[in-house]
Write a structure and sequence with these properties.
This protein is of the alpha+beta class and 112 residues long. 36% of the residues lie in helices and 26% in strands. The longest helix is centred in the C-terminal third of the chain and has 19 residues. This is Phage-related protein.
Length: 112
């Protein structure tokens, strides 16, 4: 049996996730749960612009499109870097930059 990795939310990611509509929140929880068990989300893509090993969970519901950016390559936890509602086809530079900063900060903590 695979151990379940804990989830650690970075910065405001948990508060940001909490403002998702209930259906998107439930789906995000389900997808993060799959990652915790060592699996992959149903709909994801690599986010190499944020950092190596960073992925984006893609969630769509009747209200809109939502994203959860995370990294699971470390043994100790699944780190959720950023959660947001996607308003355009292209992910905004602000969202990418925020996730990238949280990723860099995480790497600094892990290396200490």
């Amino acid at each position: 049996m695979i151990d379940t990795k804990p989830v650690e939310f970075r910065g405001s990611a948990l508060d940001d996730l909490r403002v998702f509509p209930i259906s998107a929140r439930r789906e995000a929880g389900h997808q993060i749960g799959q990652v915790q068990q060592g699996g992959e989300p149903d709909d994801w893509k690599p986010m190499t612009t944020v950092g190596q090993g960073v992925r984006e969970i893609r969630i769509r519901d009747e209200v809109g499109a939502y994203r959860v950016i995370y990294v699971a390559k470390f043994a100790d936890a699944v780190y959720v870097l950023h959660c947001f509602q996607k308003k355009t086809q292209k992910t905004s530079k602000t969202d990418i930059d925020l996730a990238a900063k949280r990723y860099r900060d995480l790497l600094k903590e892990i290396e200490q």
